[in-house]
Target: Transcriptional regulator
Amino acid sequence: MDIELRSGCPINLTMEVLGDRWSLIIIRDIMFGNRRHFRELLTHSEEGIASNILAARLKRLLSLGFISKRDDPSHSQKAIYSLTEPAIQLVPVFAMIGAWGRRHLPVSEELSIRAELLEEGGPPLWDEFMEDLRQIHIVDPIGGANGTCTSAVLAKLTAAFLEVRARSSSQIS
Model:
């Protein structure tokens, strides 16, 4: 880890490595959106990350050991980004941040449904999701990126998200 740390406080240390505006968002997009290529992370970002910021944050997350990068065998100019164990172990943190946000902030139903399901599922669902993520990011990262290796929990979260999105779209039309 090549950063200057201000104290030995675990909360401070965590904020020093993950507390910038984009790092957790990028990990979220890889974790919950299975966005594994630079272009997917750039073009599907709800928050609109700039390409230079994305490149810098990916480089930092790589150097800190939160993600890994390998060549994509289907395309010589593409790389596949995968979560590492430290990032996978952030699932409970994401669940709790999502639960807090749902209680205290004006969230949209569409973008908060996954947080709701994670909160309702509690630690058993988090553990199952982390096992699924290990399979698609560590054991079989190529299969996880191309869709041949999947996650039951991610499929459930994605289906709920798409259902709310479709319902919201039909109400607008």
Observations:
- The chain has one domain: 10-172.
- The longest strand covers residues 67-71.
- DSSP finds nine helices and two strands in the chain.
